[in-house]
Design goal:
The chain is α/β, with parallel strands linked by helices. The chain is built from 5 helices and 6 strands; from the N terminus they run βαβαβαβαβαβ.
Length: about 150
């Protein structure tokens, strides 16, 4: 799969973070299909009710209303249709205990949200090929990216 063909979904309740993320994606891959949801319930409804193509990669914030990222990740990895969906955790937390739990639950990449736009572009640039490599792979590799 070419990186230019990715269908990217961001689950994040912060409108500014969504805007910056979309701008960063457009900087890297202008033709990419990008969409966002703003809480865990919306995310799970979209993923489980989707009759079309699933996203190629999900960027998942941990602190969202209604259903948090931990709960969503657990549901995704236990769902027959969704369990192979590459999930990149996108969070401000840097608690290593939580990161280990997330990897054990099935997260593929962990990104600590960067403090500026240039750093955001760089961590996304590194995360996308990692998730694309994992799509056909049964052996998941785990990565932590800090800006």
């Amino acid at each position: 799969m070419k990186i230019t063909e990715l269908n990217i979904l961001l689950a994040d309740d912060d409108a500014d973070d969504c805007l910056f993320f979309k701008e960063a994606i457009n900087t890297l891959i202008p033709a990419t299909n990008f969409s966002a949801v703003h809480d865990g319930d919306q995310l799970m409804q979209l993923l489980t009710n989707e009759t079309g193509r699933l996203p190629d990669v999900l960027f998942l914030d941990l602190n969202m209303p209604r259903k948090n990222g931990f709960e969503c990740l657990t549901e995704i990895k236990q769902h027959k249709k969704l369990k192979n969906l590459p999930v990149v955790i996108f969070s401000t937390s840097s608690a290593y205990d939580n990161i280990n739990v997330l990897f054990k639950t099935g997260a593929d990449v962990y990104i600590r949200k960067p403090s500026n736009f240039e750093q955001l572009v760089q961590v996304i640039k590194y995360a996308l090929p990692m998730t694309a490599e994992n799509i056909p792979s049964k052996a998941k590799l785990k990565y932590v990216l800090n800006a």
